[in-house]
User: Which sequence fits this backbone?
């Protein structure tokens, strides 16, 4: 598993070491769960492989607002955006590479929004980051709860996958 972590903040505003460690653990857990789901035939994208590659970018609200407007036509910041590779080709379009990792895509998280939401909900910002990472990576794996394929069963399946992942992370005291 390869996880590239970037932070578009000044170093004093973002402890990249702590954020990187948390990010790699959460992404690793979601991918491990995705590999198990795929093995059970649960309709997860082919990208759910042990050698998957994911990029995670942490931004501020201003940059997130720009991205949200550019890609979704919504002129306000959001907490997380996911950009799956080859999304339009469907879940079975990927052929595992014999020479390199499976590129799943990118997850972008507004650290400002995550910290604000954590405070409003009453849990740590680390827990909120874990929730948003799980949500974003599940989108990369083909889970959906909105858009053209929106339906209640898919939304329930995604919430269930998120909850499983977070329970596992909490049991290992990661969040």
Assistant:
């Amino acid at each position: 598993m390869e996880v590239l972590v970037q932070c578009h903040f000044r170093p004093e505003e973002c402890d990249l070491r702590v954020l990187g460690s948390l990010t790699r653990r959460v992404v690793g857990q979601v991918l491990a769960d995705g590999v198990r789901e795929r093995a059970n035939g649960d309709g997860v994208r082919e990208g759910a492989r042990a050698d998957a590659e994911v990029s995670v970018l942490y931004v501020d609200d201003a940059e997130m607002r720009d991205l949200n407007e550019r890609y979704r036509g919504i002129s306000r910041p959001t907490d997380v955006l996911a950009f799956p590779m080859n999304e339009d080709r469907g879940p079975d379009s990927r052929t595992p590479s014999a020479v390199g990792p499976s590129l799943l895509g990118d997850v972008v998280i507004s650290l400002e929004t995550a910290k604000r939401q954590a405070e409003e909900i009453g849990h740590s910002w680390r827990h909120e980051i874990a929730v948003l990472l799980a949500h974003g990576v599940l989108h990369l794996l083909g889970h959906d709860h909105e858009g053209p394929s929106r339906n209640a069963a898919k939304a329930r399946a995604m919430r269930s996958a998120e909850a499983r992942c977070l329970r596992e992370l909490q049991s290992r005291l990661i969040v």
Observations:
- Residues 88-99 have pLDDT under 50 and may be disordered.
- Helices lie at 16-39, 61-72, 111-121, 125-140, 152-171.
- The chain has one domain: 2-171.
- The longest helix spans residues 16-39.
